[in-house]
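Weekly modeling sync, notes
Attendees: S.R. (lead), two postdocs, one rotation student

Agenda item 3: backlog of single-chain predictions. S.R. asked that every request posted to the team notebook include the full sequence so nobody has to chase files. The rotation student volunteered to paste the first one in as an example of the format we agreed on. Action items at the bottom.

Example entry:
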Amino acid sequence: MTAPLSFSDYLDLVPKVELHLHIAGAIRATTLVELAAKNGVRLPRPAETLYQWQDFYGFLEVLRLGALSLRHPADFARAAYECVEDLHRHGNVRHAEIFFNPHYFTPNGATYPEIADGLIEGLARGEREFGVSSRLIACIDRSVCLPSEALQMLEWMAAHPREAVIGIGLDGAERVGPPLAWLEAWRRAGRAGLFRTAHVCEDNQALFEGPPEHVTHCRDALGCDRLDHGYNMLADPGLVARMAREQVPFTMACWSSIPPNRAPRRERIRRMHEAGLLLVLGTDDPTMFHTTMGHGWRSVFAGNGWGPAEARRLSLAGVTASWLPADRKAALAAEFTARLDALDAALDPADRAIDLAVERPLPRLG
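Predicted structure, as returned to the notebook:
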């Protein structure tokens, strides 16, 4: 007879969709050091201390510096494959839509098709070995790119179309690149049939840097199909109510890059959840943040006192918010529902303790 599941194990086994992950922030530190040595890139610190910074802007500098270590298709394939392996082993992710910033890598001499094809190769291997499907979202870092470079990226995408690259995104420091600066590129992407998203209202930006009206600009002017973060939107209850009515998906980052922001972030996620918003929990930059999908879920659930009902809602919300075709969504929703039913039946109803250890082996069910 199988022993009842602890709630920590239950949360690890809940099937998940990952919609907020940057490949540049998901590279294992040891892999990054090896690729840097192979490609002649000098890193400032050894692997065990590489992913350290003082503030949000220091984090962005480390992120971009690390990206310079990837130069060849095999480098991108390795990073993508290991990312999928980590998603599979540490949180039971079944589908992922992953951000990649071409302009992080082109200074190394890598071309857009080399970047995309390398990533696709690694993701395809990950799907064969772990059953995790995936897609890619080409992204612009507004901290270092101009609007003209977003148009350049769209030209690359048009000249080298790849079925796995399904949309565009906007990240980086919101204060230096408000949404309307990217209007032409996002509208052109919409005409090209690409999905659109953007990082907006991040809580590591002051309210005047990432104000609620940025959500309105992203939704109404840029035509975003979903949005990433959104926490500062809580300052405008009317806008929150509108986004809840429209069920616009918001992809969350469970674990902030800045430690003092982690508890407030969980509280904001709770308030957004209670407001009826369609939320999907994600890892953002997992290896850089020393987190995993399983750890992120456990931290949010422990901080907010959530249980199986919230787990089911968030699990299925990931399917709804994904950019998969309707038939694939329906199949994945059925798969998730069956799995959730089995997990609910196996859960120990008396166990609500949550182990927040980052790395935990997945238990067997049945």
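Discussion: group reviewed the output briefly. The chain is about 50% helix and 10% strand.
Action items: rotation student to repeat for the remaining queue; S.R. to check formatting next week.
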